[in-house]
């Protein structure tokens, strides 16, 4: 893609999210979300393959529907209460409709069906932007709604954790697995949102870090299938150590960083007298752990049936820029002991 | 719920049902999307007329029109791209990305 067009699209992506973050009026927030959607469509279909075009089409429909529903709910709220201020959205039918529209934007169950197919058709870099940057604006709006009735959030959250785990069971395509893992993690975020917004923010940040690290490992070896994951040992041996640790962190195992949000969320839910929900969430995240373990097994514990002496590929002098990847991978593995400091830094 | 509110709400719900249940053609979904945006345009104009008597946010419907035109253009570009790669605008042909 020509550099001026590419940079205009990337700047528009930044502009859209910034507008939504800076707005107190629902209309301006909606405009920011629309700009985000419109800016990422050419990026998604830039290599003009049939799969990319199909993924872009499905993404467009899902996002356009959700945006229109969001604006409809905001206008209904204005008709009923006369308020356009985001922080003054009272807890009525319209705020539930706004929540559902934003849930469809980010791909929470039961509004998640577009997510695996869309991720499957995209390149890994655009898939990374889709699962990290595009989630920020709608999550910020959900965060600001300040709900008092937590039923819809608990339902969305639990369903997403279950669907995110169960849906990834039978997948061998890495991008679909990443889509289902995204759904599951968003479920954890939404589950705790009505009880402790700082914990939801913590979960968002740690999820962004872990997903970035995993996507970067896959981009480094350009793998999109478990079979090609299995040959990583011959290309970049260090990845067979770091990527399983990142995967186990995503699965939420101590002593890795991914345990931190899950632990604090379960503690908060128990304090709110919702121990059965906490149990259900914890057990459902075992589903996700299963397919993370399968990926780790394929990478580290198996050696594909090749002639071992002849499997080393040509090591050309490529220049991978691994700064961000090394930062996020280290954070994904080592940050659990710093939990008290992180909790102290998140008072809002 | 005032009559105006009911009018645009039912228009929106009809369009949403059309968008959600489209089965055959890509372009019928795009038309329902346009209907959605039209009902929202009428809603915003009515809100300015009925409730905002200072008319200081009378530009809201026009901005909505601009965004809706951009979205329609994007949808049509995707229709053309889909017809180029999948040879038809029937939705049954969008089946490459299944497991």
From TrEMBL, chain A:
Topology term for the membrane: Multi-pass membrane protein
Location of the NADH dehydrogenase subunit 2 C-terminal domain: 289-343
Highest taxon of the lineage: Eukaryota
EC number: 7.1.1.2
Localization: Mitochondrion inner membrane
Ranges that cross the membrane: 6-28, 59-80, 92-111, 123-145, 151-170, 177-195, 201-221, 233-254, 274-293, 324-346
Keyword Electron transport: yes
Keywords: Electron transport, Membrane, Mitochondrion, Mitochondrion inner membrane, NAD, Respiratory chain, Translocase, Transmembrane, Transmembrane helix, Transport, Ubiquinone
One GO process term, biological-process aspect: mitochondrial electron transport, NADH to ubiquinone
Domain NADH:quinone oxidoreductase/Mrp antiporter transmembrane, first and last residues per copy: 23-287
Keyword Membrane listed: yes
GO molecular function, one term: NADH dehydrogenase (ubiquinone) activity
Catalytic activity: a ubiquinone + NADH + 5 H(+)(in) = a ubiquinol + NAD(+) + 4 H(+)(out)
GO cellular component, one term: mitochondrial inner membrane
Function according to Swiss-Prot or TrEMBL: Core subunit of the mitochondrial membrane respiratory chain NADH dehydrogenase (Complex I) which catalyzes electron transfer from NADH through the respiratory chain, using ubiquinone as an electron acceptor. Essential for the catalytic activity and assembly of complex I.
Family: Belongs to the complex I subunit 2 family.
This protein's name: NADH-ubiquinone oxidoreductase chain 2
Record organism: Poecilia reticulata
Lineage of source species: Eukaryota, Metazoa, Chordata, Craniata, Vertebrata
Automatic annotation (TrEMBL), chain B:
GO cellular component, as recorded: mitochondrial inner membrane; NADH dehydrogenase complex; respiratory chain complex; transmembrane transporter complex
EC number(s) per entry: 7.1.1.2
Lineage: superkingdom: Eukaryota
Subcellular localization, as worded in the UniProt entry: Mitochondrion inner membrane; Mitochondrion membrane
Listed name of the protein: NADH-ubiquinone oxidoreductase chain 4L
Organism for this UniProt entry: Poecilia reticulata (Guppy)
Predominant location: mitochondrion
Role of this protein: Core subunit of the mitochondrial membrane respiratory chain NADH dehydrogenase (Complex I) which catalyzes electron transfer from NADH through the respiratory chain, using ubiquinone as an electron acceptor. Part of the enzyme membrane arm which is embedded in the lipid bilayer and involved in proton translocation.
Family as reported in the entry's similarity comment: Belongs to the complex I subunit 4L family.
GO molecular function: NADH dehydrogenase (ubiquinone) activity; oxidoreductase activity, acting on NAD(P)H
Entry keywords, A to Z: Electron transport, Membrane, Mitochondrion, Mitochondrion inner membrane, NAD, Respiratory chain, Translocase, Transmembrane, Transmembrane helix, Transport, Ubiquinone
Record field: transmembrane: 6-22, 29-48, 60-82
Enzyme class, broadest EC rank: translocase
Name of the gene: ND4L
Gene Ontology biological process terms in this record: ATP synthesis coupled electron transport
Catalytic activity line of the entry: a ubiquinone + NADH + 5 H(+)(in) = a ubiquinol + NAD(+) + 4 H(+)(out)
Topology of the protein relative to the lipid bilayer: Multi-pass membrane protein
């Amino acid at each position: 893609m020509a550099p001026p067009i590419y940079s205009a699209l990337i700047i528009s992506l930044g502009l859209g999210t910034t507008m939504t973050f800076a707005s107190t009026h629902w209309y301006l927030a909606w405009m920011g979300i629309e700009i985000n959607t419109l800016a990422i469509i050419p990026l998604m279909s830039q290599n003009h393959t049939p799969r990319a075009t199909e993924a872009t089409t499905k993404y467009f429909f899902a996002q356009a529907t959700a945006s229109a529903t969001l604006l409809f709910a905001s206008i209904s709220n204005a008709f009923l209460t006369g308020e356009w201020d985001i922080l003054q959205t009272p807890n009525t039918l319209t705020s539930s409709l706004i929540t559902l529209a934003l849930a469809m934007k980010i791909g929470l169950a039961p509004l998640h069906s577009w997510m695996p197919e869309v991720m499957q058709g995209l390149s890994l870099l655009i898939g990374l932007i889709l699962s990290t940057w595009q989630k920020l604006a709608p999550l910020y709006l959900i965060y600001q709604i300040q709900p008092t009735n937590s039923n819809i959030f608990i339902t969305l959250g639990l369903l997403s954790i279950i669907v995110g785990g169960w849906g990834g069971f039978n997948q061998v395509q890495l991008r679909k697995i990443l889509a289902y893992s995204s759904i599951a993690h968003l479920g954890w975020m939404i589950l705790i949102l009505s009880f402790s917004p700082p914990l939801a923010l913590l979960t968002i940040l740690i999820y962004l870090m872990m997903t970035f690290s995993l996507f970067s490992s896959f981009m480094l070896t350009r793998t999109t299938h478990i079979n090609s994951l299995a040959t990583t040992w011959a290309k970049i041996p260090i990845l067979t150590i770091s990527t399983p640790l990142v995967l186990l962190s995503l699965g939420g195992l101590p002593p890795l960083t991914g345990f931190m949000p899950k632990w604090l969320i379960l503690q908060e839910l128990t304090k709110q007298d919702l121990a059965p929900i906490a149990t259900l969430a914890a057990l459902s995240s075992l589903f996700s752990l299963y397919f993370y373990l399968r990926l780790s097994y394929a990478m580290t514990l198996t050696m594909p049936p090749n002639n071992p002496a002849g499997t080393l590929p040509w090591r050309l002098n490529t220049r991978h820029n691994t700064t961000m990847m090394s930062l996020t991978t280290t954070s994904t593995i080592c940050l659990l002991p710093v939990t008290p400091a992180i909790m102290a830094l998140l008072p809002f | 719920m005032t009559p105006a509110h009911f009018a645009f709400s039912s228009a929106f719900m009809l369009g949403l049902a059309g968008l959600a249940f489209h089965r055959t053609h890509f372009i019928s979904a795009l038309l329902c999307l346009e209907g959605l945006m039209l009902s929202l345009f009428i809603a915003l104009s009515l809100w300015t007329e009925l409730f905002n008597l200072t008319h200081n946010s009378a530009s809201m419907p026009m901005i909505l029109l601009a965004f809706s035109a951009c979205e329609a253009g994007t949808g049509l570009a995707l229709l053309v791209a889909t017809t180029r790669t999948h040879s038809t605008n029937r939705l049954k042909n969008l089946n490459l990305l299944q497991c």
